[in-house]
Amino acid sequence: QVQLQESGPGLVKPSQTLSLTCTVSGGSISSGGYYWSWIRQHPGKGLEWIGYIYYSGSTYYNPSLKSRVTISVDTSKNQFSLKLSSVTAADTAVYYCARGPRELLDYWGQGTLVTVSS
Amino acid sequence: SYVLTQPPSVSVAPGKTARITCGGNNIGSKSVHWYQQKPGQAPVLVIYYDSDRPSGIPERFSGSNSGNTATLTISRVEAGDEADYYCQVWDSSSDLGVFGGGTKLTVL
């Protein structure tokens, strides 16, 4: 069974870069066939798809965040990462990593709360 | 971008049937996926491609999709079904998934 686990700082200062890593176990990112996504959920709000990456490195980003987002993959470590630059309080959210055949998400990490505050 | 509309809340008595709708322009032409999210937990896929159930999801969960409305139906509702439910489709114009705003299911 595939498992995903987010890791990274829980507190980021305004204007800095949020960096999270998702470690995948029980399956190989480089085996192909799946896309690896980041989703966030503002406190008490709905879900927002940030973007996703394929093992080859192809990426797709939410247009509303595209100028600040970078998703990368490290197949040697079976990890993929999220960087969100120039963060503000509006980026405070629970961040999830997930897997799926692109159009849906069949396995999710447990999520990690990132707070943007000085 | 494509917009999905869900009712903020649905209430149902135990043992009854709950129906949660997801509206979108000609949504019947798209594949709809449904997620259940309990408080403090990650979402879980409960229905995919309109009406398929992942392994481990009870048969009480079913889905349909036609015209401008997709529906998640939960039969014989149990207290443990109380959760937020989100519909999701793929927006081919932006190459990204889109979620509905979510529906809080309350079991009375």
Mean pLDDT of chain A comes to 96
How many helices of chain B? The count is: 0
Task: Kindly report the greatest chain-chain contact and the residue count on each side.
Answer: A-B, 21 and 24 residues
Strand segment tally of chain A: 11
User: What average pLDDT do the residues of chain B reach?
Assistant: 97
Task: State the secondary-structure class of chain B.
Answer: mainly beta
Order of helices and strands of chain B: EEEEEEEEE
Helix content of chain B: under 10%
From the N-terminal CA to the C-terminal CA of chain A, the straight-line distance is 39 Å
Strand content of chain B: over 45%
Main beta-sheet annotation of chain A: 7 strands, mixed
Envelope shape of chain A: globular
Q: Using only CA atoms, what is the Rg of chain B?
A: 13 Å
Total of helices of chain A: 0
SS-based class of chain A: mainly beta
Label this structure with key terms.
heterodimer, A: 118 residues, mainly beta, seven-stranded mixed sheet, four-stranded antiparallel sheet, 11 strands, B: 108 residues, six-stranded mixed sheet, three-stranded antiparallel sheet, globular
Structure notes:
The complex is a heterodimer of chains A (118) and B (108). Chain A contains no helices and eleven strands. With 118 residues, chain A is mainly β. In chain A, strands 2, 4, 5, 6, 9, 10 and 11 form a seven-stranded mixed beta sheet that branches. Chain B is mostly beta strands. In chain B, 0% of the residues lie in helices and 45% in strands. Chain B is built from no helices and nine strands. Chain B has strands at residues 9-12, 18-23, 33-37, 44-47, 61-66, 69-74, 83-91, 96-99, 103-107. In chain B, strands 1, 3, 4, 7, 8 and 9 form a six-stranded mixed beta sheet that branches. In chain B, strands 2-6-5 form a three-stranded antiparallel beta sheet, with no helix packed on it. Chain B is globular, with a radius of gyration of 13 Å. The model of chain B has no long low-confidence stretch (mean pLDDT 97).
